[in-house]
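__Record contents__

***
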Amino acid sequence: MAKIAVSSTDGVLINEHFGKAKLFYIYEVTESDEVKFIELRENTPHCSGTYDHGQIEEAVKLLSDVNVVLTAHIGPTATGILQSTGTSVYTLSGPIDKALNTYAKRRKILENINISPIDQCSPSGGCSSGGCSGGCR
């Protein structure tokens, strides 16, 4: 079984930056590849133009029981913290149901590879193009 957190603004699409996510949709993928919605978790976004390591850690704590995070964007600091806890991080966009079904079918392969995030946010919280609020896309 795998527990998956998805950052989304609408519960339909993976379309939210990890640092801006107000909501995480939590799903379970069973050993028989069945996908079930478990719950919705509210988060206090940390990516508002200023960097706060404590708020990243709060989001990580909120997701401490998940195995995988699916998000549209994420910076290297949050990725590193999540990965250090054993949580796999994948950056992608599109329909949640399609991503979860694909994960269910291919999870043994995905669990053995490390995908780098698309974002290039600096650990200081900003992108070269203006910080999380302006340029981490």
User: Anything to note?
Assistant: The mean pLDDT is 81. Helices lie at 53-62, 76-84, 96-110. Strands lie at 2-7, 13-14, 23-29, 35-42, 68-71, 88-91, 94-95. The first strand starts at residue 2 and ends at 7.
